[in-house]
UniProtKB/TrEMBL annotation:
PROSITE patterns: HTH_LYSR
PANTHER family (UniProt xref): HTH-TYPE TRANSCRIPTIONAL REGULATOR BSDA (PTHR30419:SF28), HTH-TYPE TRANSCRIPTIONAL REGULATOR YBHD (PTHR30419)
Gene3D superfamilies, A to Z: 3.40.190.290, Winged helix-like DNA-binding domain superfamily/Winged helix DNA-binding domain
Protein family membership: Belongs to the LysR transcriptional regulatory family.
InterPro entries reported for this sequence: HTH-type_LysR_regulators (IPR050950), LysR_HTH_N (IPR000847), LysR_subst-bd (IPR005119), WH-like_DNA-bd_sf (IPR036388), WH_DNA-bd_sf (IPR036390)
Name of the protein in its database record: Uncharacterized protein
GO MF: DNA binding; DNA-binding transcription factor activity
Keywords, sorted A to Z: DNA-binding, Transcription, Transcription regulation
A GO CC annotation given for this chain: cytosol
């Protein structure tokens, strides 16, 4: 089991309603149900009593929830205690962020609050001939398949459908890909990884999207949706700062509508205190973000 499973369980226990819990976590209901089933299998007990769409904590679930809440509280207190003991880290870090550029300012601002003396050299593209000498840490939505780079999955984020408030689908709780195959799409340019992800999702659903507008800027994609010019595929976590109340996000029913985000590091290289501190920060930052209640307000 992992920390994310525990946070998901805590949220489902709070709502005792899988769809409401999934909305608050900003993941699909099938994905959340699968996570809870996996946790129950690992524990060897049913944490919830299920009857149709209704779920309630079982006796085992109530006992486990007490321990989970104590554990999560203790972990949060431990993090705060360590931050108080942590010596100042300083130096320069070469950070390649190939995915989720809209979230970069928030990420760096929060890290700088903890380590104000760290300087960043940021790149948002990589010359393959220079990898891994071009970065100390890299975030990407695809594996960097080189023998001298080590990549691990940091988290998985759902790909949602963004529609204007006036759209005929805007009042739905979820949407299937077959319902949108004839829509006009607003997508990023072909050289962007999200464009490749979007096209792959459409191909798996058996259609090719009608692309009415292309842009290299997430904010432009948002503004075009606001103007009612089309719909778009929106990453639920890394793009959340781009959106506003004029864009309605709909969970896509197909479970393959998601992408992995990877943390990559050069192999055979001694990692500095700056690099180690930033690695730890990234893991904690995205773990907190994926379970944040703020996603209800997007």
């Amino acid at each position: 089991m992992d920390l994310l499973q525990l946070r998901y369980f805590q949220t489902v226990a709070k709502y005792e309603h899988m769809t409401k819990a999934a909305k608050s976590l900003y993941i699909s209901q099938p994905s959340l149900s699968k996570t809870i089933r996996t946790l129950e299998k690992e524990l060897g007990v049913d944490l919830f009593l299920r009857k149709g769409k209704s779920i309630k904590l079982s006796t085992a679930g109530k006992v486990y929830l007490e321990h989970v809440e104590k554990a999560l509280y203790s972990l949060e207190q431990g993090k705060k205690a360590l931050q108080g003991l942590q010596p100042h880290v300083f130096g320069t870090l070469r950070f390649s962020m190939l995915v989720g550029s809209p979230i970069l300012p928030e990420l760096l601002q929060k890290f700088s609050e903890i380590h104000p003396k760290v300087e960043f050299h940021i790149s948002q593209n990589i010359d393959g001939r220079e990898v891994p000498n071009s970065f100390d840490i890299c975030l990407s939505s695809s594996l960097i398949n080189l023998k001298n780079v080590e990549s691990t999955r940091l988290f998985t984020e759902r790909i949602m459908l963004g529609v204007p408030k006036s759209h005929h689908l805007a009042q739905k709780e979820t949407v299937s890909l077959q319902e949108i195959k004839n829509e006009r799409f607003i997508l990023l340019n072909e050289n962007k990884n999200l464009r490749k992800t979007a096209q792959s999702i459409c191909e798996l659903a058996g259609f090719s999207p009608t692309i009415s507008y292309e842009s290299d800027n997430p904010s432009t994609v948002r503004d075009l949706i606001n103007a009612g010019l089309g719909v778009s595929f929106i990453p639920s976590i890394t793009w959340h700062k781009v959106l506003n109340s004029s864009v309605v996000l709909l969970p896509i029913e197909e479970a393959f509508s998601e992408r992995n985000i990877y943390l990559s590091l050069p192999k055979e290289k001694q990692h500095s205190n700056v690099s180690l501190s930033f690695q730890t920060f990234l893991i904690d930052f995205f773990s907190n973000l994926t379970s944040s209640k703020d996603f209800k307000d997007i």
